[in-house]
Design goal:
It is built from 10 helices and 5 strands. By secondary structure, it is α/β, with parallel strands linked by helices. Strands 3-2-1-4-5 form a 5-stranded parallel beta sheet, sandwiched between helices. The mean pLDDT is 93.
């Protein structure tokens, strides 16, 4: 990874607050270049409203903050590519945005919507959040762990264990690896 990878963040990975926070913090720390589309942000908002996690004003602030923090993240002009995509119809716009923006990665939990046979011809790979974060950790373990420790101090009152426990349900491998690196009890471990 000599240059920062370009990754489209699917709406499903932007809905859980802690995962979104980790992904955006990693982007702020130049681990990768984040990308999304208006459609992805609209889907994110609808999902967050369904789970009543934010007020409409908070969602407006979130969207504005994301676009201001990452002014080059918003992909547009990809719509003519949508009909040529052969993945799940509900997520063709995500693959089209990836192809249009030359993103090599789609970070999603809906891997079944992005099969290898539909993404490989476009030189795109779909990755779970866990695999994507593990790749970022592998690239620079010390810096990645330091980023998570700093994030836990800034936004979680300094408790890295609590942050790892919140990451664990969606990204168990990376939570365990970070715990191992810090020599603390891994989330999900019984007793």
């Amino acid at each position: 990874m000599s240059t920062r990878p370009r990754a489209i963040l699917d709406a499903c990975v932007l809905v859980p607050f802690t995962i979104r926070d980790v992904l955006l913090t990693a982007a702020e720390d130049n681990f990768y270049h984040p990308l999304w589309s208006t459609n992805v942000l609209n889907e994110m908002e609808r999902a967050i409203i369904r789970i009543a996690a934010c007020t409409p004003q908070q969602l407006l602030h979130l969207r504005k903050h994301m676009n201001e923090a990452f002014p080059e993240a918003l992909v547009s002009g990809y719509e003519p590519r949508i009909p040529a995509m052969t993945n799940d119809p509900k997520d063709r716009h995500v693959l089209a945005a990836a192809v249009h923006s030359s993103a090599g990665i789609i970070v999603t939990e809906n891997l079944r919507h992005f099969t290898q046979s539909t993404t490989t011809p476009h030189h795109v790979v779909a990755m779970s959040v866990d695999n994507f974060l593990c790749d970022l950790l592998d690239f620079d373990p010390e810096r990645f762990v330091a980023m998570l420790v700093a994030l836990s101090r800034e936004r979680r009152g300094g408790d890295i264990i609590m942050l790892l426990e919140r990451i664990y349900p969606i990204a168990p491998r990376v939570a365990r690896l970070v715990a191992f690196y810090l020599d603390i009890s891994a989330p999900g471990r019984q007793g």
